[in-house]
Amino acid sequence: MKKESSLSEEIIDVALVRGFVFPSAEIYGGAAGTYDYGPIGTLIKNKIVNLWRQRFIYEETDHNIRIWEMSGSRLLPEPVFVASGHLEKFNDPLTQCKSCKKSFRVDHVLEDYEVEVTDGTPLEELTEKVKEVGAVCPKCKGELSEAREFNMMFKTQLGATGGHNAYLRPETAQNIFVSFRRLTHSMRAKLPFGIAQIGQSYRNEISPRNFLIRMREFTQMEIEYFVAPEHLIDYPKFDEVASSIIRLVTREMHEKGEKAMDIEVEEAVEQKLLPNQPLAYILALETEFLQLLGVPYEKFWFRHMSPEETAHYSGGNYDLEVDSDYGVIEIVGNAYRQDHDLQCHAKASKTKLRIEHDGKMIVPHVVEPSLGLDRIFYTVLESCYRNDETRTWTWFAFPPHIAPIEVAVFPLRKKPEELIESTIELYLDLKDIGLDVFYDDSGNIGKRYARADEIGIPFCVTMDLESSKDDCVTIRDRDSTDQVRVLTEDLASILQMLIDSELTFVELKEKYSIDEGLVEE
Ligand code: GAP
């Protein structure tokens, strides 16, 4: 049943009832900022990850560059974060209610008073603003304390008797920097190369909120691209994307409140709107990736972050921002980290973190795309969610390659027994050739189509009583609800073409006949 609520509320509702995402430990009241992915959500999440691996690792690797994937420990000892600066600087501004003792992020409290503050605003200024607007505790209206720093890392002790401080990693990147020596030696790495990693990161957010947007445990897909200084101006793969268009918001445009402009990546580098070719290359790749996930081009852009929002060592940060029901959210952080990380870990650990390049030992520079899987997952749900006049149920128009299941197979009726048997046989045949298939014979056919739409299954195949006589089955298209009858022997290849987007359903309708099959013009 459809009901009136905000888009994000509708999405949370369907996420709960359709097996996408639930609050963790819900029966005990949950733990704020932690979520479990249910079976359908896990299928979609895995497809997004597979596409990231395919596009950013497998297809990227060629004679010019090698990208390897590693899988590091989530628990890291304190010296890592002393050297990286997280222990000192990975803080959010906190204020506490003097009456109820609840804690809040000062910038979030100020947002409720329509005061925008950027990351990095000094604590005194935040306290001043709280006083200026008369901000009070959002829970009990009590007086708020002065703003202070709160370190967002989860601390623990190693061993039974403790003594060795350790932290859950707040980003996956640090594993890559601290294992740089092993990685380069064992893989005989040559610049440029990349190390990718997907995994959980942990941040003790003061006020986790907005569903999957601000969590305490979340998944990042990061790549550290290690490059020599000359690759910054001449990256071997740059020509592949030079004429790609991205949407960009410069610092000046942001200050003036202007919307994103379309610009060729080559021009953006020439005009020095982007700091180097590898970073520009990554932005082009992300633009393509998001569209493959079904996120419309007009919905996202890259914003050059202001100096206050950028770490002192960074040569430029460009967040991928999305227009969502929660407002503008950052779903990917892109940073030119220069040689900062390797230099600081080399100094602190007294280890040489260098690589041979053109006969010299050098400390490479790093360009990093850091994709937040959960925010991307939410963005995909929001982009593909449909609540329209075409049907009385809400549904998801996932691109077939990220749909949780590719094909649902149904018998038209529950009787006779032979119909069930031959439909199960067809289901198993499609499963054997590697399609993601689902079999269902409960309820009537209309309910089954609705259930398939509700989780975004792009194609349904129905066998009926005629099928045993004419050797045909019916394919139903989720997006148009149109149907085409095809020979069972043509079914697998047609489905594969539809899933791989080599054929549209409209083309199938126009070009397919049972007598002649698929006729190419
Ligand atoms: N290594 C760089 C780094 O971690 P970041 O901008 O702090 O950069 C990258 O994080 C991405 O991780 C963000 O764009 C976002 O998608 C995701 N992310 C960060 N904090 C998050 C949180 N509390 N909940 C969900 N996703 C988060």
Give the topology, please:
Elements: H1 7-17, E1 21-23, E2 35-37, H2 39-58, E3 66-70, E4 75-77, H3 78-84, H4 86-89, E5 91-96, E6 103-105, H5 106-111, H6 123-133, E7 148-151, E8 155-158, E9 164-168, H7 173-178, H8 180-187, E10 193-202, E11 217-227, H9 229-233, E12 245-249, H10 251-255, E13 261-264, H11 265-270, H12 277-292, E14 300-304, E15 317-324, E16 327-338, H13 340-349, E17 355-357, E18 360-362, E19 365-372, H14 373-384, E20 385-386, E21 395-396, E22 407-411, H15 417-432, E23 437-439, H16 445-454, E24 459-463, H17 467-470, E25 472-477, E26 483-487, H18 488-499, H19 505-511, E27 512-513, E28 517-518
Parallel strand pairs: 3-10, 12-14, 22-23, 22-24
Antiparallel strand pairs: 1-2, 4-9, 5-6, 5-7, 8-9, 10-11, 11-19, 12-13, 14-15, 15-16, 16-19, 17-18, 20-21, 24-25, 25-26, 27-28
The protein binds glycyl-adenosine-5'-phosphate.
Glycyl-adenosine-5'-phosphate is lined by residues 171, 173, 203, 205, 214-215, 218, 220, 222, 330-333, 370, 372, 374-375.
Give your account of this protein's structure.
With 521 residues, the protein is an alpha+beta fold. It folds into 3 domains: 7-90 and 152-382, Bira Bifunctional Protein, Domain 2 (BirA Bifunctional Protein, domain 2); 91-151, Herpes Virus-1, CATH 3.30.40; 394-518, Rossmann fold, CATH 3.40.50.800. Helix content is 34%, strand content 26%. The protein has 19 helices and 28 strands. It has a 9-stranded mixed sheet with strand order 3-10-11-19-16-15-14-12-13. A hairpin with an 8-residue loop joins β20 and β21 (395-396). The longest helix has 20 residues, at 39-58. The protein starts with 6 loop residues before the first helix and ends with a strand. The model has no long low-confidence stretch (mean pLDDT 96). The structure holds glycyl-adenosine-5'-phosphate (GAP).
